[in-house]
Amino acid sequence: QLQLVESGGGLVQPGGSLRLSCAASGDTLEYYAINWFRQAPGKEREGVSSISSTGTTYYVRSVKGRFTISRDNTKNTVYLQMNNLKPEDTAVYYCRFVDGPNDYWGQGTQVTVSS
Hints:
This protein is mostly beta strands. It contains no helices and eleven strands. Strand 7 and strand 8 form a beta hairpin.
């Protein structure tokens, strides 16, 4: 049974940086696309970024140029480097992996951007 565990969240001032990690156990992520989502209080969950098995990346417009997604298949981990953070980036961040009918989500990691 695959499990995803996010880490790296925290409290950071505007303009600061964080690196989120999504570590998988129970199966390899190497052949699959991985997605990062976030959900702010009172808002719907939104897709933030994704990376394919071949390294093709996608970013939602609001984070383009500030966030970078990457993967290290040797560590079975996907990263989300977040720079120049803004208060509107405050949310719980989740990673997600879909394998046919199976839809896996991590437990989420809180990112709070505040002075």
